[in-house]
Amino acid sequence: MKRALILLALALCLLPAARAAAAPNIAAAADLKFALTEVAAAYAHAGGGQVSLSFGSSGIFRRQIAQGAPFDLYLSADEAYVDALIAEGRIEGPGALYAIGRIALFIPNGSQVKADNRLRDLAAAARDGRLKRLAIANPEHAPYGRAAREALQHVGAWEAVADKLALGENAAQAARFGISGSVQAAILPLSLVRAEEFAGKGASVTLPESWHAPLRQRMALVKGAGETARRFYAYIQTAEARAILAKHGFVLPGADK
Prior knowledge:
The chain contains 11 helices and 10 strands. Helices cover 42% and strands 19% of the residues. The chain has 2 domains: 132 residues, Periplasmic binding protein-like II (D-Maltodextrin-Binding Protein, domain 2, 3-Layer(aba) Sandwich), CATH 3.40.190; 104 residues, Periplasmic binding protein-like II (D-Maltodextrin-Binding Protein, domain 2), CATH 3.40.190.
């Protein structure tokens, strides 16, 4: 028994070192799928090493980190989730604002709905039968879904489309709905609509940022993060990484006004 306890204590002591040596686990909002993948590739090319990227709903990642999920760095599409984790003592504050997101209306090829950045035709299409399904991320835990709902409410179209929603678990899943042919329209992160995956598959227009609460995207290190995660966190704030984010449609901190 004594030997077993000694071995267990030794294993627990080695856990932080093992975490630091492994490729850091990055929890990132789904709107970053293409942009952060490119940032990570540039980081590796510069000699920074490999990172393990997981993309999903910011709200779900927030809950997982609160429950002790082994992530090293959290990039949220809503800074409120980061603030909550700071208050709970799970991550290192205050983190850094790395981008401000925008939303876009995407109309897949073959749809009879018009790519109208005032959403007038979308509302009309919901009423006359041209719009049968509209894809957005789930607004209950996905910030971009919440922004889509706010935009629709702003133009008085929410009630018209509420029974036609195809809710993605996160923004990336909503984007897959958008190009699958199963919906006639989608409101998605601009960063996903700009991806090569969408090229030639439809039309898009960026929606006014004043129609929804700002998508202030903040990142922070999870307590116990290793040195590689810390270096990657710093790299995201460099001019090289910021240029990649800007290319994918993100507004950079300090350039949003």
